[in-house]
Amino acid sequence: MKAAAFAYRRVNSLHSGLVQVASAGDTVKIMAGSQSLGPMLNLRLARPGTLIDISGMEELRVAALEGDTLRLGSGLTHAEIEDGEFEAIANHPWRRIAAQIAYRGIRNRGTLGGSLAHADPAADWVLAAWAFGAQVEIASRQATRRVAIQDFMTGAYATVLKSDEILVAVLLPRFDAGVRWGYYKFCRKPGEFALASCAAVFGPAPSSARVVIGAQDGTPRNLEALAGQVARGGIAAATPAAIDEALGEAMPGKDAIDRKFFASVVRRCLEQAHGLREVA
Question: CA 270, CA 44: separation in Å to the nearest integer?
Fold first, then answer.
């Protein structure tokens, strides 16, 4: 199939983009890398009246450390993050995570902001943003607002973005060398979306620990109790019983096979965070 007819507009500045989305009405769609939207258009799962192409916005392709906050422009491609093309992300864990997204051809085009705005529950950036305590910056003609990632994604393929808004940047706490982290996902073959995934981050204080599972029916799930246990007791606290209890609370109703996948993924992610397993 081919896409249904739509008006196409390409903009090269954030100001122009905000003017266009504000005037285009509720049927507008924003396109960046188009690695998710393109197939949806061709299958006619998406039928926008107007398509606004923001891939030419250089303002959205920045990475800079601003005090204790790392600012990543929403237009950065997965490949630019993977390759560490900006000094601010040269030693950041997200380089390793970006390298696991799909295939290199997709990473060359797909963007950080596009992935988050699409809000696929199995997407890598959705899970990584939750685990690393990200905020997103959203702009409209009237104002700019910041939203915690837990409040940004409201469900599968659903966010708080309004039709006249553009996701401008992702804001991450400064990453210190002493922070331990892990990221592990199960796919049937390389490049496919995850069937089970987990990200873990352990800062200096036990209260800063996060263990988050993705590839759920909706938003990621925080395994808060397990994170606290592991932060205080180390990897020894991640017993099969403790992991199973945490998953039972986070994903009630899942069958035994799903629980088995997730238990293995969580365990391997925690082993990465404690230096017992290499991050891919």
Answer: 41
